[in-house]
Amino acid sequence: QVQLVESGGSLVQPGGSLRLSCAASGFTSDYYSIGWFRRAPGKEREGVSCISSSDGRTYYADSVKGRFTISRDNAKNTNYLEMNSLKPEDTAVYYCAAASGLFRRCVPSEFGTWGQGTQVTVSS
């Protein structure tokens, strides 16, 4: 059974940086995808960034391109979301999610296993 545990959320000032971590366990295959999603107050959950484990293919939402970087450390079974130049509109609960195989679209419906979420608040 795949389990995901996020960490790294915090209160940060606009323009600041954070790194979120997603520790994964229970994978029975090397072919899977990890996604980072977020839900802001009053909004639907949206895909922020996704990565495939086998070929490293990545996706970024337009709103975070050039500011966020997704990465993985296969030896540690941990995935990261490096967030720079944070804006108040980045405030949300961030979730890590896993899907078997290579993702086609970075959307919540393609990911079946979810972490508990970590709060990111960008405010002065």
Overview of the molecule:
This protein has 124 residues and is mostly beta strands. It is built from no helices and 11 strands. Strands 2, 4, 5, 6, 9, 10 and 11 form a 7-stranded mixed sheet that branches. Strands 1-3-8-7 form a 4-stranded antiparallel sheet, with no helix packed on it.
Helices and strands in order:
Layout: E1 3-7, E2 11-12, E3 18-25, E4 32-39, E5 46-52, E6 58-60, E7 68-73, E8 78-83, E9 92-100, E10 113-114, E11 118-122
Parallel strand pairs: 2-11
Antiparallel strand pairs: 1-3, 3-8, 4-5, 4-9, 5-6, 7-8, 9-10, 9-11
Can you write the helix and strand succession as a string?
EEEEEEEEEEE
- Distance from N terminus to C terminus (CA atoms, Å) equals 40 Å
What is the SS-derived class?
A: mainly beta
Low-confidence stretches: none
The gist of it:
With 124 residues, the chain is mainly beta. Helix content is 0%, strand content 49%.
What would the keywords be for this entry?
single chain, 124 residues, mainly beta, 7-stranded mixed sheet, 4-stranded antiparallel sheet, 11 strands, 49% strand
